[in-house]
Hints:
alpha/beta; about 10% strand; HAD-like_hydrolase; hydrolase; magnesium; HAD-like_sf; HAD family hydrolase
Amino acid sequence: FDLFGHSSPKLLGTLVFMSQKxxxxxxxxxxxxxxxxxxxxSGFDHQRASAFVQTTDGPPCEVATRAVLSQLPGFPxxxxxxxxxxxxxxxxxxxEAASATLFEDSVDALVRLRGYGLKLGLVSNMAAxxxxxxxxxxxxxxxxxxxxxxxEGAMKGQLDGHGIYARAASRLNVPEAQxxxxxxxxxxxxxxxxxxxxxxxxxxxxIKKPVQxxxxxxxxxxxxxxxxxxxxxxxx
Length: 236
């Protein structure tokens, strides 16, 4: 399973959504980019910085600073420290993480699937400060394996390989072909797992069945649809 959604809290997400979206990392990197014309050549890649944050463990201000300096080694650290204060960076992260809320169908689906005797794994792209959300929501013990990108040093959906999916299958002690990955992000939670040899379902909470779609991907609109899976189905 995937864990979080990264956009509109009521529409996107797999097991958990953030009811208070503060977007501290987005605002911080945007402000860094705004500073560049006055400080020298541009070329700050926000996506690269975001990937750095999600694959690096450590305190948020330290990781954010390293993400910037990895691309802009001459950027004044004093300016970064000023931005942290102006944006209430750490406070905003704490507020966002504390707002993690389970979707109504999450716990019931997980409990029922465990009741089928299936092994459950969670693989999530996230920065380190958000890991507390899983414990706060009370679902940590429902998983046999939990993997976070910041701790693994690798992300779902990266173009340089599918190692994180193989790693998850190995820790579950289940062949990739017998694993079923479920998540709301097409690239990370469907295309990536399939390319790594897994089966996958795309969870799209934005649509309601019955609906006709031209998507070639098997799609569900609620985790409640998973309870019809037979025990012979793949591990998740």
